[in-house]
Amino acid sequence: MDSSAHKLNAVTATTAPAKTTSENSGTLEGPPVPGWFGKATGNPVVRRVGLIALRIYVTVLLTAITVQAVALFLLRKWPSYSWGALLDRFVTSPAMAGIFAVFAAAIGAWSLNRQLAHTKQKAHDEAWWEQFEWVTDRIVSPDQEEPEKAAKAKEKLPRSLAYSLMTALSKSANAAFQKAAVDGILSHYLRERPSPEQDGSEISDASHMDATEAESLRGLVAVLPEDSPSRETARRVLSAYEYEDDVRRALRHRLGEAFSEPDAPDFGADAVIDHGSHKLLVEVKQSVTSLHVLARIGQRLRTVMDREEASGGIIVTPPPSLKSLGNPTAQDRIKAMSNERIHLIEWGPAEGSGALWDKIRDILPYVYK
User: Fold this and answer.
1) Radius of gyration of the chain from Cα atoms?
2) Quick one: DSSP state of residue 143?
3) pLDDT tens across 257-310, in order?
4) What are 123-147's pLDDT values in tens digits?
């Protein structure tokens, strides 16, 4: 399937007719803004003036009804006055015309209010879809056949900004279909997330997520519907980031300056431990329950160990993993990797930083031999 079909499939169930955004001169423009009507109706001053006018109109209407009621009361002659004659006189009087005028004005005001509400809703929806299209163009991978100028105009947004914009779109969505559109594009975006390693599922490794991106993603998860398919996916991505952050903080607490994080995102490992004259590489994984995943992590760590002249590699993962699941084939594989100075350690944040360092110290003799 070519790239244009790939992009179309990503938003087939999520997009609706929207005005085409104009191509810019190669710079990244901001999302489209509502027109003059949307700005006017959204202006606090205009809304306040409209509310005052509505109150004045209601007051005049009630006053007119009260005056007509008082006039009817004063015109009656009890008990000798003929109510039939009073009714005939009232029907042909200007008061009757005034009542009809008030009713006509009320109906006109109601109709105008409905029309204004409909126009405002239509303008809001059009602006929303324009903004959705703008964001989508800048978070979905562009078509390879797209002209270079157009592709540059749709330069992909930073991930933290992309999550923030999707959060704003979800909050301003009025219809369930619009929320489903945001949910669909988020699912596609999470699947496209760059990762040096896949864990065998659709969830990408979160090793290069920073605190700003994580906070933006938390904000987006908070506004997604409970039944949103992408909500659980996003939570798992966040869980992977939070586990890695727990491991880093635990090692930093125990080792201080002996613990460091690589500056290059493509370094190939999450952290480095300098223990005397030896260097240990640390790779953190949210889940290691597949032999295929374990083999890929081990292969990458061996490559980095050779490049960095490291003494050994450590894979840290929460239980349960292949180490405690009792799979004989997995145990043989873990033993073979240990002989190559790559060790699998199970650790949960509840155990504390001391437990993690103790488990690392237990495998040091096997690393240094």
Assistant:
1) 34
2) P
3) 889 988 877 788 889 999 888 899 999 998 888 888 899 999 999 999 999 999
4) 888 999 999 999 998 888 665 555 5
Q: What is the pLDDT of residue 102?
A: 80
Helix (H) or strand (E) holding 281, with range, is strand 278-284
Reported as a pLDDT band with limits 50, 70 and 90, residue 195 is: very low
State the Cα angle at 138 between 136 and 140, rounded to 5°: 65
Contacts of 122 (CB under 8 A, 6+ apart): none
Map tokens 């104009």 to a residue: 22
214/160 Cα distance (integer angstroms): 8
Residues recorded for the chain: 369
223 burial type by CB count under 10 A (0-12 exposed, 13-18 middle, 19+ buried): middle
Q: Is 315 helix (H, G, I), strand (E, B) or coil?
A: strand
Q: pLDDT tens digit string along 5-17? A: 444 344 444 444 4
Contact (Cβ atoms closer than 8 angstroms) between residue 309 and residue 279: yes
Q: What is the rounded distance in angstroms from the CA atom of residue 270 to the CA atom of residue 262?
A: 7
Whose tokens are 């690392």? That residue is 360
Q: What is the largest CA-CA distance in the chain?
A: 123
Asked whether the beta carbons of 197 and 300 are under 8 A apart, the reply is: yes
Helices of type H across the chain: 3-11, 36-42, 44-75, 83-91, 94-137, 148-153, 159-172, 176-191, 211-223, 229-255, 291-308, 328-339, 353-368
